């Protein structure tokens, strides 16, 4: 089974506005209301690619109940710790030519809530995949993913981490199967700016030396680099598309990569399916669907070595 962990999920409320005017009433139309948060997005795209998963993490209040139902409506098993107080956040995404997002604080999460999440993850077995995605809210220790992985280190499960900064680097000692920083997140770790595939491969390799098995660096419309467990460096082009809404493209890439790997055990195919899923999400509002992803796959050329 695949488990996705989203410690701070959200309801995403997408608004379309012809031209955003601060200090005025803006007439808008609703582009969509989605159950979201990074791990939730991964679960949704996995399901669309035929891979079942359990979405876990923390929910709170009536928005948390709505999130729970929204996840189930996507055909994903929802198994969140429901907090006794607070509200799952509603993130407002304003589409007015540019993408303006309001991502608010989530509910406070206490140490006893973390223990309940650990209990839920007690079901994890050898061969399972556990995906830790998203930034860590201030009420939790920044090394929460590392702590959860510590508790699972004897299970034989594979770990995937999509997070930035310390939340990511603290997990490396638990040898995650895959980490997926974007170029900016990768650069921040080493206080450099990463602008080419060769640079991405160089710094990805350093994260590999620090413990990661496979490192996937996404570079938006510039494509993606994979440094694999043997040090092989591959590049996949991004699909040539006009981006419509890029929210969730990184999560879609993680889902595509997992689905591709579980279906074929071929990292090159996983890289291509990940790139296709990221591109298919960027090309539309909301997350990509199955036909969009496979349609995009044929537009992504072969994986090639990074020079
Ligand atoms: N403009 C685009 N054109 C084509 N493909 C894209 C575009 N933006 C994203 N993608 C695809 O999606 C993948 C992930 O995108 P990106 O690097 O923006 O992830 P991210 O920054 O982690 O995104 P997120 O905001 O979801 O965290 C890219 O490697 C690429 O395959
Ligand atoms: Mg990302």
Shape: globular
CATH topology: UDP-N-acetylmuramoyl-L-alanine:D-glutamate ligase
The overall pLDDT, averaged over residues, is: 97
Total of domains:
1
Largest sheet: 11 strands, mixed
Rg measurement, Å: 18 Å
CATH superfamily: Ribokinase
Low-confidence stretches: none
- Report the strand count: 15
Helix/strand order, N-terminal first: EEEHEHEEEEHEHEHEHHEEEHHHE
Structure description:
This protein is of the alpha/beta class. The protein has a single domain, classed as 3-Layer(aba) Sandwich (UDP-N-acetylmuramoyl-L-alanine:D-glutamate ligase). The protein has 10 helices and 15 strands. It has helices at residues 38-48, 61-73, 111-120, 144-152, 165-169, 183-190, 197-209, 249-264, 267-282, 290-297; strands at residues 2-6, 10-16, 29-36, 53-60, 77-78, 81-83, 89-96, 98-102, 129-133, 158-162, 178-179, 214-218, 224-227, 233-236, 304-305. Strands 1, 4, 5, 6, 9, 10, 11, 12, 13, 14 and 15 form an 11-stranded mixed beta sheet that branches. The protein is globular, with a radius of gyration of 18 Å. Residues 182, 218-221, 224, 238-239, 241, 243, 246, 248-251, 253, 275, 278-279, 282 line the site of adenosine-5'-triphosphate.
């Amino acid at each position: 089974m695949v488990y996705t962990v989203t410690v701070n999920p959200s309801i995403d409320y997408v608004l379309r506005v012809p031209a955003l005017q601060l200090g005025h009433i803006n007439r808008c139309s609703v582009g969509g209301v989605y159950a979201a948060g990074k791990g939730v997005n991964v679960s949704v795209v996995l399901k669309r690619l035929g891979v079942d998963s359990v979405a876990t993490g923390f929910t709170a209040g009536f928005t948390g109940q709505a999130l729970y139902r929204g996840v189930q409506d996507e055909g994903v098993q929802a198994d969140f710790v429901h907090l006794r107080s607070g509200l799952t956040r509603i993130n407002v995404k304003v589409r007015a030519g540019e993408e303006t997002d309001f991502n608010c604080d989530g509910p406070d999460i206490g140490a006893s809530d973390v223990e309940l999440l650990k209990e839920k993850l007690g079901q994890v077995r050898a061969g399972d995949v556990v995906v830790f995605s998203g930034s860590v809210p201030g009420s939790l220790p920044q090394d929460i993913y590392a702590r959860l992985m510590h508790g699972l280190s004897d299970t034989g499960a594979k770990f995937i981490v999509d997070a930035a900064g310390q939340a990511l680097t603290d997990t490396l000692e638990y040898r995650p199967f895959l980490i997926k920083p974007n170029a900016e997140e990768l650069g921040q770790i080493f206080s450099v700016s990463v602008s080419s595939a060769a640079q991405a491969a160089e710094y990805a390799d350093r994260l590999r030396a620090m413990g990661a098995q496979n490192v996937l660096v996404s570079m938006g419309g510039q494509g993606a680099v994979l440094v694999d467990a043997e040090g092989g460096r591959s590049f996949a082009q991004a699909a040539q598309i006009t981006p419509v809404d890029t929210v969730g493209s990184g999560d879609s890439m993680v889902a595509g990569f997992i689905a591709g790997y579980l279906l074929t055990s071929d990292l090159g195919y996983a890289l291509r399916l990940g790139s296709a899923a990221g591109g298919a999400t960027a090309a539309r509002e909301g997350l990509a669907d199955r036909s969009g992803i496979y349609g995009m796959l044929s537009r992504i050329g072969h994986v090639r070595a990074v020079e």
